[in-house]
Amino acid sequence: MLHQIQALDTELFLFFNALHAPWADSLMHTATQKLTWLPLYAWLLYWLFKTAKPGQLKNVIWQIAVIVLAVALADQAASAVLKPLVGRLRPCHVLYLADRIHLVGSCGGAYGFVSSHASTTFAVATGFMLIFKNNPTFKWLFLWAAFVSYSRVYVGVHYPLDVAGGALVGIGSAYVVWGLAQRLGFVDFRNL
After folding, report:
1. Residue 111 φ/ψ, nearest 5 degrees
2. What CATH architecture applies to the domain 2-191?
3. Assign residue 21 a region: left if phi > 0, alpha if psi is -120 to 50, beta otherwise?
4. What are the CA-CA distances from residue 4 to residues 7, 86, 133, 163, 184 (Å)?
5. Which residues is 89 bridged to in the sheet?
6. How confident is the model over 99-123, as pLDDT tens digits?
7. Would you state the torsion angle of the CA atoms of residues 178, 184, 189, 192, taken in this order, to the nearest 10 degrees?
8. Domain boundaries, the chain
């Protein structure tokens, strides 16, 4: 069964990775770079402060802390726990795929399950969804997280299940950290 899942994942990877064009290579390479999104993160921080009600500065600081902790948890769960535990090679490190992969940039570390990019971007998206649960505006962050995750398949460094698993890790991390913060009384939905 596991072999069949991996074979299907490989076929999906090869299909999506083959959907490339010269103009898209530079776009996807840029999308997969972490520094590319610093202006977005700055805008999100600005929005948190801008929309805060008077006297809610402490709550905003805790919201930022929760998102940062969710991202850190997602990143560590992906990089320090799951990648070495599962030990699944990135497709760009699999020898029999070498001549079939469209690799854009470098391959990265040996292991790919789960994608740290997917886990951290979905942690950010989920964190903002939890903060602005009554405001559908921030649901577009899930499209952004999906785009960044897809870019990892496009550039040849992750299988689709790597990014799907990373998305689940990121969403779960945000819910865990947010739930703990609420339980401990650090963040209060009633004041948002």
Report:
1. -100, 150
2. Orthogonal Bundle (1.10)
3. beta
4. 5, 17, 39, 18, 44
5. 111
6. 999 999 889 899 999 999 999 999 9
7. -100
8. 2-191
